């Protein structure tokens, strides 16, 4: 395993067990068996580490699904595509909620984290924006009614997934793939009843 991978593994562990607010680069470097100087050769800062953990260490296909949304337009499978998004979002939010929630406890850290993500063109809104853009494209293709507010549909779907992640983490429930698939299908069935042209 290379240095960068060891650092990401350590970051994922520390961020998951201590939360982003209490995960220090010093602790992450120590867990990985390196100095902080070595850590900074591979990552700019803690936000860079967090983005790396989200994209490379969180068990979810959400980022892959989002990257492929453009190719799905016009394929006649809007509900199936939204189910893929929901399954990925449920898994992604479930895994990342324990890491990210603590950042809200410290206003200064939240502001710095928000600024660092904005500089990278990243942030939680990018998921909603990608889903909304997909829905707008399907709308233009005639697959979805012209009066549907794509951004609201994306927000409702992802909001349901995020709320499920919050409640599951709060209750200490472990999630099963089968349960997540049923939940994703249920969310989408409820939403799409008003989508079709």
Structure, explained:
One of its GO terms (molecular function) is transcription cis-regulatory region binding. It holds the Pfam family TetR_N. Keywords: DNA-binding, Transcription, Transcription regulation. With about 200 residues, the chain is mainly alpha-helical. The chain folds into two domains: about 1-55, Arc Repressor Mutant, subunit A (Orthogonal Bundle); about 60-195, Tetracycline Repressor, domain 2 (Orthogonal Bundle). The protein has helices at about 5-20, 25-30, 35-40, 45-55, 60-65, 70, 80-100, 105-120, 125-140, 150-170, 175-190. Helix 1 crosses helix 7, helix 9 (about 125-140) packs antiparallel against helix 10 and helix 10 packs antiparallel against helix 11 (about 175-190). The longest helix has 23 residues, at about 80-100. The model has no long low-confidence stretch (mean pLDDT about 90).
